[in-house]
Amino acid sequence: MQINYNLKPALERRTEQFEPETDVGFGNLRTDHMFLMDYRDGQWCDPRVVPYGPFEVAPGAIALHYGQSVFEGAKAFMHEDGEIYTFRLDKNAERLNRSADILCIPGLSEAMQLEGINALIDVDRLWFPMQEGACLYIRPFIFATEDRLSVSPSEQYTFCVMLSPSGPYYSDGFDKAIRLLISERFHRAVSGGTGASKAAGNYAASLKAGKAAAEYGAAQVLYLDASNKQIEEVGAMNHFHILKDGTVIIPSFTDTILKSITSQSILDLGELLGCEVRQETVMLDKFIADIESGEIIEAGGFGTAAVVSPVGSYIFEDNRVVTVGDGHVGDNTRRLYQVLTDIQKGKIEGPEGWVQHV
Ligand code: PLP
Ligand code: COI
To answer: Which residues line ligand 2 (CB under 6 A)?
Structure first.
């Protein structure tokens, strides 16, 4: 693919490696450039790296009215050799196309996605934040640009990749366990809907739930299925729990749960983690009873942005609180976090192909 480069003038670009003086947070910062491709006349065209900045979008663009838009979230890390490596980016490219298919958006070859992302990271490599626990968060997305108000798939799209020097999603990082609200009022997805995709609208639909969670002092809602009987996932991460024998359980992937690459990685690592990792249908009643009896000793969430986020307690809408173990980060969760992040940072070798040099 022939990528066109229209870079910022050298004097306006970062010239030294980014050494942040304060916590970078999650998703706040941008780098100098973005990668773009357009879809028109039935094909993806015009791959280019351009200065990061506003788009010109028609007020009637289909994405703005009907939410025909999908996105991804991936990360790149700096290893001890001072080079940048992406983590399982091929899986994100594959999933972007799965999400696209669910929203009738034309897919973009994985090879082209990876080439564009690598080109962008290469240009903005000085933006890698030299801060403990930070990385380059990669946000590829596709949105419908055709200026038309009838409800049918757009014939024009833009694929964009932006980068954000970021730390973990939950500001307390790994060390403080979060609380989740178990609610029967909010549902993230129903079978036959868009739950298995990273559709923009899924996140718009989670905002009210997020507000309700905050009113209970919780970070997010733990979504149940439509019958309020099964545990599904959290707005920005899959859910897991750990039994007292160390077994890690992740709810089975269905068409109402996003197939998390972090969960898949923990499943793939399996024995390397020194414990059994499996998926099953998780019934809420049994889950709560098993926490109360001590059969379940730890719980948390898996996600690219969230990494491994320990959950210390659950609160119900009647204010009943159920604490997992002693409510703090447990040793098993700590080990999962350590192994995953050590592989990402190249401190230990993961399965072949998981980290790719940029
Ligand atoms: N579930 C939802 C709804 C998400 O938004 C995310 C984040 O991407 C995840 C799960 C975790 O997926 P992954 O580990 O691929 O980032
Ligand atoms: C990610 O983990 O990359 C996500 O996309 C979650 C996001 C909603 C912050």
So the answer is: 73, 169, 203, 236, 303-306
Q: Where are the beta strands (DSSP E) in 215-304?
A: 220-224, 231-234, 237-243, 248-251, 277-280, 296-303
Same-domain pairing of 248 and 339:
yes
**At which residue do the structure tokens 């968060």 appear?**
137
Q: How far is CA 279 from the centre of its chain?
A: 20
User: Cα 318 from chain centroid?
Assistant: 30
Q: What is the ipTM of this complex?
A: 0.98
260 lines ligand 1 (CB under 6 A): yes
List CB contacts of 194: < 8 A, sequence separation 6 or more: 102, 103, 201, 202
Q: How many CB atoms lie within 10 A of CB 261?
A: 23
Measured in angstroms, how far is the CA atom of residue 72 from the centroid of ligand 1? 9
> Which tens digit of pLDDT belongs to each residue from 163-207?
999 998 877 768 889 999 999 999 999 999 999 999 999 999 999
Please give the residue range of the domain that contains residue 214.
178-345
**pTM of the prediction?**
0.96
- How many C-alpha atoms does 204 have within 13 Å on its Cβ side? 13
- Classify residue 155 by its DSSP letter: S
Do residues 192 and 95 make contact, with C-beta atoms less than 8 angstroms apart?
A: no
Q: Residue 292 C-alpha to ligand 2 middle, in angstroms?
A: 31
Same domain? 129 vs 158: yes
Q: How many domains does the chain have?
A: 2
9 Cα: distance to centroid of ligand 2 (angstroms) = 32
Quote the distance between the C-alpha of residue 19 and its chain's center. 25
What CATH number corresponds to the domain at position 259? 3.20.10.10
